[in-house]
Specification:
226 residues; mainly alpha; Tetracycline Repressor, domain 2; 65% helix; transcription regulation
Length: 226
């Protein structure tokens, strides 16, 4: 979800090849543009222009369009980093007698993702609140939000397949339920004025939603990875 990006530790099967310096610089530029776009959308809504995003990020307009097709697309990397972070957390290897059931592991990972641990994480949540409030006036921005969550659900499916060993339908239902709980929790929190870490904050809302939406899936009661 909308947490501050952390360096990748690689896939559960081993470390990923280190990107080249050029690739890292491109990724940093793309993410900086995304942060700028999110902050501007949160502040001014649909009135923001691609030129304004580029100027504020300190890049040429042609550089902006080298990375993104539209101004709304510019927020996708920031949203995707946050959404994928909790999936990477869930996918991290865990074994032994203290390994929690998959249902509990899902809730714990979701809580961690939506509990801001520092100021950048808190700021990312605030940007996301602003983005969600701007979406009614900008359908293209809403489409980006839903596309990011669609991609997240697809990424979550193989992780849950490995953790549960369940049949494909059950795995897809579990992925859809967990992803929906995350999305709805953030949307519900963003619609109000509750603080990020209170009893009506996104972490508490996602725990409630996760329990409700996965209640009919007994396959999640087994230990992760069993």
């Amino acid at each position: 979800m909308p947490t501050a990006p952390h360096p990748s530790s690689g896939s559960p099967s081993g470390p990923s090849p280190r990107p080249s310096l050029t690739e890292r610089r491109k990724a940093e530029t793309q993410l900086e543009i995304a942060r700028t776009a999110a902050a501007l959308f949160a502040e001014r809504g649909a009135a923001v222009t691609a030129d304004e995003i580029a100027r504020t990020a300190g890049v040429a307009l042609r550089t902006f369009y080298r990375y993104f097709r539209t101004k709304e697309d510019a927020v996708a990397p920031l949203l995707a980093v946050g959404v994928r972070e909790w999936i990477d957390d869930l996918a991290a290897p865990a074994a032994g007698p203290d390994t929690p059931p998959v249902r509990e592991a899902l809730e714990q990972a979701a809580r961690r993702a939506l509990t801001p641990a520092d100021e950048p994480a808190t700021e990312a949540l605030r940007w996301t609140r602003g983005l969600l409030r701007a979406m009614p006036g900008d359908p293209a921005l809403r489409a980006v939000w839903h596309r990011v969550h669609h991609d997240a659900e697809e990424a979550l499916t193989p992780v849950l397949a490995r953790l549960t060993g369940a049949d494909p339908l059950t795995v897809r239902l579990a992925a859809a339920a967990a992803n929906t709980a995350m999305r709805v929790a953030v949307e519900e929190w963003a619609a109000g004025d509750e603080p990020e870490d209170g009893p009506r904050g996104p972490a508490e809302l996602v725990a409630r939603g996760m329990r409700a939406l996965t209640a009919g899936l007994p396959e999640l009661d087994g230990g992760a990875g069993t």
